[in-house]
Amino acid sequence: MTRGPTTEVTPMRNAIHRARTSLEQRPLAAAVGGVAVFLLVLWTTPASWQTSTLRFAVPIALAAIGGIFAEKSGVINIGIEGLLIVSAFSAIVVVDWLGDGGATAGLPNLWWGMLIGVLVSVLFALLFAVVCLEFEADQIIAGLAVWLISLGLAPFISRILFDSPNTVNITRFENVTVPVLSEIPLVGYLLFDTEPQVYLMLAGAVAGWYLLSRTTFGRWVVASGENPKALDTAGVDVRKVRYAAVLLSGVFAGLGGAGFGLGTLGTFAGTGDTVINGRGFIAIATYLLANYHPIGALLGSFLFAGLNSMQDVLQAAGYAIPTELIRTIPHMTVIVVLVFVGRTRLPDAAGDHYESGDD
């Protein structure tokens, strides 16, 4: 009597159960507390700071959700910073090339910029996936390579096109107002009278949670990162699942980068760490803080984005604090949060290569 498949599928079920527990069985008090804090912040802070926080959260939240899919599948994608860079840059370039404020084939050029930005991000994610999954390169080194290539390539192309590491300014996305809902006290003007990339962020968080915790594909992603051998024994191609998860991380990061460039900034600055300025790395800290929960990553992004907006508040208030010190606030907070939130459990097979038939 053969027992192999049964003994292998059981670990896969256990792995899925552990992951679903982390996604579904968070204490209800934490969710209620998060909502309470959110409402308190809305009640006590100026509207300008709130809207700024929401816009700055876009690249962090969407990149974090993308990173969750990649890492839950067993592929550590620290090149998310690079994906944000190339998507933001390419989106601005496309809009400028097609014509700022115009439309092509019936679609506003801003949306063409968004689509191309996402496509470029996916292409870079595919390159990363091929290097890691086909050539079995070290995932950390490959991710750093994606970031460094993006960090140098975007300003280089910008110098060719614009004679400067910075692009031209373009018209940004305008607010989209939802009738009736925009009149809701406290949250109406913030959530239902805002720019398209904010709606994409909110929808992306819900879609990411549903896809990861309520679909067969999500269960495959979880099993791929926890026990790929059991998933393989069940007849699912681990490599295809990991490819799909990494490409999905490219989609989310592309939405975040392009949305940030087209909706929040309206330009791309290629000097220094570029206009992305470490937001991809903050996104990694965000999903670790959220323990790989997409909704938690969304809420965590508000924390870091709020601290980023605080820079402008402190500077406008005239506090005699050096600008360089103020700019370190979000990054210092990342370190503090990771020190005190040390219970995040990485997927068992994260960073490990797998070949079908491996023992």
TrEMBL record:
<keyword id="KW-0812">Transmembrane</keyword>
<dbReference type="InterPro" id="IPR001851">
    <property type="entry name" value="ABC_transp_permease"/>
</dbReference>
<feature type="transmembrane region" description="Helical">
    <location>
        <begin position="198"/>
        <end position="222"/>
    </location>
</feature>
<protein>
    <submittedName>
        <fullName>ABC transporter integral membrane protein</fullName>
    </submittedName>
</protein>
<keyword id="KW-0472">Membrane</keyword>
<feature type="transmembrane region" description="Helical">
    <location>
        <begin position="52"/>
        <end position="70"/>
    </location>
</feature>
<dbReference type="GO" id="GO:0022857">
    <property type="term" value="F:transmembrane transporter activity"/>
</dbReference>
<dbReference type="Pfam" id="PF02653">
    <property type="entry name" value="BPD_transp_2"/>
</dbReference>
<feature type="transmembrane region" description="Helical">
    <location>
        <begin position="28"/>
        <end position="46"/>
    </location>
</feature>
<feature type="transmembrane region" description="Helical">
    <location>
        <begin position="140"/>
        <end position="162"/>
    </location>
</feature>
<feature type="transmembrane region" description="Helical">
    <location>
        <begin position="243"/>
        <end position="269"/>
    </location>
</feature>
<dbReference type="GO" id="GO:0005886">
    <property type="term" value="C:plasma membrane"/>
</dbReference>
<feature type="transmembrane region" description="Helical">
    <location>
        <begin position="281"/>
        <end position="305"/>
    </location>
</feature>
<keyword id="KW-1133">Transmembrane helix</keyword>
<feature type="transmembrane region" description="Helical">
    <location>
        <begin position="111"/>
        <end position="133"/>
    </location>
</feature>
<feature type="transmembrane region" description="Helical">
    <location>
        <begin position="82"/>
        <end position="99"/>
    </location>
</feature>
<keyword id="KW-1003">Cell membrane</keyword>
